[in-house]
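Entry 14. Structure prediction run on the chain below.
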Amino acid sequence: LIGLVGSEMCIETDSNTVLDIPLEKDETYSVDTGYYTVHIEVKDGRARFVESPCPDHICEGFGWLSNEDQTATCLPARAVLTIVPVS
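Output returned:
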Protein backbone atom coordinates (compact mmCIF):
# COMPACT_ATOMS: atom_id res chain seq x y z
CA LEU A 1 0.00 0.00 0.00
CA ILE A 2 1.03 3.67 -0.47
CA GLY A 3 -0.69 7.14 1.08
CA LEU A 4 -1.65 11.94 0.63
CA VAL A 5 -1.03 15.55 1.87
CA GLY A 6 -2.48 15.53 5.36
CA SER A 7 -2.64 11.87 4.61
CA GLU A 8 0.07 9.58 3.39
CA MET A 9 0.75 7.14 0.64
CA CYS A 10 1.01 3.52 1.62
CA ILE A 11 2.58 0.73 -0.50
CA GLU A 12 1.72 -2.88 0.29
CA THR A 13 3.28 -5.96 -1.32
CA ASP A 14 2.11 -9.56 -1.26
CA SER A 15 4.60 -10.27 1.52
CA ASN A 16 2.47 -7.88 3.64
CA THR A 17 5.27 -5.34 3.70
CA VAL A 18 3.81 -1.86 4.13
CA LEU A 19 5.69 1.33 3.35
CA ASP A 20 4.11 4.61 4.48
CA ILE A 21 5.23 7.67 2.53
CA PRO A 22 4.15 11.24 3.38
CA LEU A 23 2.78 13.20 0.44
CA GLU A 24 4.00 16.57 1.69
CA LYS A 25 7.47 16.17 0.16
CA ASP A 26 8.07 15.93 -3.59
CA GLU A 27 10.29 12.93 -4.23
CA THR A 28 10.62 9.75 -6.29
CA TYR A 29 10.86 6.43 -4.44
CA SER A 30 12.17 3.09 -5.69
CA VAL A 31 10.34 0.19 -4.07
CA ASP A 32 11.62 -3.37 -4.44
CA THR A 33 8.60 -5.66 -4.10
CA GLY A 34 10.60 -8.86 -4.45
CA TYR A 35 9.29 -9.24 -8.01
CA TYR A 36 10.09 -5.87 -9.60
CA THR A 37 11.35 -2.50 -8.46
CA VAL A 38 8.59 0.04 -9.07
CA HIS A 39 9.13 3.78 -9.00
CA ILE A 40 6.60 6.00 -7.23
CA GLU A 41 6.57 9.76 -7.78
CA VAL A 42 5.17 12.11 -5.12
CA LYS A 43 4.52 15.67 -6.26
CA ASP A 44 2.17 18.44 -5.14
CA GLY A 45 0.36 16.16 -2.67
CA ARG A 46 -0.27 13.46 -5.28
CA ALA A 47 1.33 10.10 -6.04
CA ARG A 48 1.62 7.78 -9.04
CA PHE A 49 3.46 4.81 -10.45
CA VAL A 50 5.92 6.67 -12.66
CA GLU A 51 7.83 3.66 -13.93
CA SER A 52 7.61 -0.09 -13.64
CA PRO A 53 9.62 -2.76 -15.45
CA CYS A 54 6.54 -5.00 -15.60
CA PRO A 55 5.46 -6.20 -19.07
CA ASP A 56 2.17 -4.30 -19.41
CA HIS A 57 2.70 -0.95 -17.59
CA ILE A 58 -1.01 -0.74 -16.69
CA CYS A 59 -0.08 0.67 -13.26
CA GLU A 60 1.43 3.73 -14.93
CA GLY A 61 -1.91 4.35 -16.67
CA PHE A 62 -3.73 4.91 -13.36
CA GLY A 63 -2.18 8.38 -13.28
CA TRP A 64 -2.09 10.66 -10.26
CA LEU A 65 -3.80 9.69 -7.01
CA SER A 66 -4.71 12.51 -4.63
CA ASN A 67 -7.93 11.60 -2.83
CA GLU A 68 -8.27 9.37 0.21
CA ASP A 69 -8.95 5.71 -0.67
CA GLN A 70 -7.81 6.07 -4.29
CA THR A 71 -5.81 3.00 -5.33
CA ALA A 72 -3.51 1.93 -8.16
CA THR A 73 -2.18 -1.61 -8.51
CA CYS A 74 0.78 -3.20 -10.27
CA LEU A 75 -0.19 -6.87 -10.44
CA PRO A 76 3.11 -8.20 -11.86
CA ALA A 77 5.03 -6.39 -9.10
CA ARG A 78 2.33 -7.31 -6.58
CA ALA A 79 2.20 -3.75 -5.27
CA VAL A 80 -0.79 -1.63 -4.29
CA LEU A 81 -0.59 2.16 -3.98
CA THR A 82 -3.36 3.64 -1.78
CA ILE A 83 -4.02 7.10 -0.36
CA VAL A 84 -4.76 6.70 3.35
CA PRO A 85 -5.49 9.16 6.18
CA VAL A 86 -2.76 9.83 8.73
CA SER A 87 -3.74 8.41 12.10
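The mean pLDDT is 83.
Filed with the rest of this week's runs.
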